[in-house]
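Weekly puzzle thread! Below is a chain. First person to post its structure in token form gets bragging rights.
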Amino acid sequence: MRKRFLALILALVLVASLSGCGKSESQAKGAAGNTDETEQSSAPIELTNVSYDPTRELYAAYNKVFEAYYEKTFGQKITVTQSHGGSGKQALEVANGLEADVVTLALEGDVQVVADAGLIDAGFTSEFDLDSSPYTSTIVFLVRSGNPKSILDWNDLVRDDVGIITPNPKTSGGAMWNYLAAWYYFEQQGQSEAEILESIRKIYSNVVVLDSGARGSTTSFVENKQGDVLLAWENEAFLSLKEYPGEYEIVVPSVSILCQPTVAVVDEVAKKHGTEKAATEYLKYLYSDEAQEIEAQNFYRPSNKTISEKYVFASEGNTIKEIPADGKWINTNITLTDINHFGGWKEARAKHFADGANFDQIYEK
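Winning reply:
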């Protein structure tokens, strides 16, 4: 009787054990699955923003604000990595395999290079407001304190005694804007196309250093002390005033061009990384009031008119010697054309910057 009782107990224990093992395995799989899902959803999102030279400071400030906003709004951490260089060169890098979730380049034409590589869907200029251009800029002159060469407008750049620093239009988006702004000036002076080409040729014959990007040109002028005038993005010029007070002056020419940097999600890369939502939010938030203030504080012209007007100052002359104490720096005493005047970027590239086009012809002479 005792043996049968012990056998019954052992049988019950064995059944319970086997049942428990089966249950534990199932629960373990479920627990493992939940753990993986939790780890996956809580892992920080990583975005890469491939941009152009002069936006380093802007995006260093913006990324901190966006990362805080995104975590607060969506409950998930995000980190943004920046990459900078000449805009044209950056576009080619992305087209050739540099994995960017978003691009924030100097002009629509450079983003189109990435789209032509099959990485960005058609219609990217309509994805965000104002042709996907959340901020704008223009081209100004940076000269040394006292303006020793009396450089006041584009016509002064053709003089034999003026050394010019500007990037190469073949690699730099800012350099294309420089070229087109000069072209517009001479056009406004009533010159024929042949005369304009000769004027532009004289300007480039005066170029001391033709760097690959805008930041390299700033370094050549400001740190290496080369040349008499830097053809600069407006924000680059103001950053030089801020960093080297009393050493430089900004000369605002009579006419220039409205530069519209373009932003886009690199759709194929974002899909691959699973970052489509975050990438879209990253660019969309550039239009927020908080971001527009950051853009203005980094000397980009905000697309929000109300915020932009807060930074406009009344100027009687065309020389700026220091950062205004009240933070108002936007000079509206300038006539600006835009890329539409040149038929859009497709036409402008074909006529001026393609292999064998106008720039190649004048620079090779």
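Puzzle host: Confirmed. Bonus trivia for everyone else. The two ends are 115 Å apart (CA to CA).
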